[in-house]
Amino acid sequence: MQPMYSIVLVDDHAIVREGFKRLIELEPDLEVVAECRSADDAVEAVGTRRPDLVALDLSLPDGSGLPLIEHLRSVAADTRIVVLSMHDGEPYVSEALRRGASGYVTKGVAPEELVAGLRAVMQGECFLSSDLRKRRAERPSEARDPIHRLTAREREVFLLLAAGRAPKQVAGELGIGQKTVYIHRASLMGKLGAGSELDLYRMAAERGLLPRKN
Questions:
Q1: Cα–Cα dist 110/125, whole Å
Q2: Residue 72 CA to chain centroid, in angstroms?
């Protein structure tokens, strides 16, 4: 008998979840056992269901999906995670893999790549969608990007500040003190040679790191 693989979908858009669910369940051995719209919902579903895999969007209403990757791994160490996101640039991809994701598929690729990615990850492989593989092959110098000098926390602060969050909002989203945010801000701006939040915005925009507006 063919094994059945259980999947939890995490995305705050109901239409997106429904589309992915229909696509996944066309496969006879894949089953969506829970749909979540927030990080809190995801933690509860993964802790209860212990799925084989989580398909995770990075933009959630109650915070970034990057810290959630580590949290879910701590809740269910055997559950594999595939990021499914509109973010297609660095440091999102490298940071997601560093935190424990086994795959990264952008929402701009053909639907069948999602299924291919889920299957590859469940077979123990690390999977990147074709657009990400192509970009990495064309831009080997990306590793010299000064953004790669930032620590994991500095990258989180950078992305939030670049997206227009105030330091107080950054502190709330990351669960750290506002003073700590200012310390990280000073450090990352020094590493990047930035003089203001506008410089951070420009750097993020040039690399395609800002959320796309509908």
A1: 20
A2: 13
Q: Render pLDDT for 43-53 as a digit per residue (tens, 0 to 9).
A: 999 999 999 99
Give the tokens for residue 190: 């020094």
Q: Which of 59, 41, 61 is nearest to 49 (CA)?
A: 41
What are 76-107's pLDDT values in tens digits?
999 999 999 988 876 788 888 888 899 999 98
Which top CATH class is 5-138?
alpha beta
What one-letter code names the amino acid at 207? R
Query: Which tokens go with 42?
Result: 């995801």
**1.10.1740.10, 3.30.450.20, 1.10.10.10, 3.30.70.660: which CATH number matches 146-206?**
1.10.10.10
Residue 18 confidence class, pLDDT cut points 50, 70, 90: very high
Backbone phi, psi, residue 103, to 5°: -160, 160
Sign of CA dihedral 91, 75, 38, 188: negative
Angle at 72 between CA 79 and CA 51, to 5 degrees: 35
Contact by Cβ (8 Å): 59, 85: yes
Cβ neighbours of residue 42 closer than 8 Å, sequence gap 6 or more: 8, 10, 36, 54, 56, 68, 72
